[in-house]
Request: fold
Amino acid sequence: MFQLYLYDMESGNDIINRVAGSSIKVLDLEEYYISGERVLLDIKEQLYNGLILKEKPFREFIKTHDWPQYQNKFVAITCSEDAIVPTWAYMLLTSALQPFARLVVFGGLEELEAKIFFDALARIDWQQFQNQKVVLKGCSKVAVPTAAYVEATRLMRPYASSIMFGEPCSTVPVFKKSRS
Reply:
């Protein structure tokens, strides 16, 4: 491991960057962000009197709706009204969307984003963090949902010797394996 040395002109002393030379591994969840358009499909307009979903008109909507518009998009399906929506309605939506959408989830955009990250995190070989000190990087250019940090912590905890949150130079301890 190398250490970066800088010189402090004011004091005349070398400044050692111990972070750069440490054995701490950094996991930047931003690297697992998958680009693509996120869409919310709200079926509130399909409700009869804003209260209930009727099967016949809903099946007509399913038959005539422009499904190709969701090609390669991430889609969250929901009903934002407090209404009676049977489970089969969401199943019909999913069935119609699946040939076009990259992903379909029940819920809002927050649940959609979490699911996208969960799928990406599931592909990580967490054993690479065996007995490692790991920082889950806190700052990113894209919004990483809190749920992704929770999931990463859950998946990493059996392997890492310690987990921290933040930046390598300023971390918050989250977990430390006991020395038993």
In short: The longest helix spans residues 109-121. Helices lie at 55-64, 87-97, 109-121, 146-156.
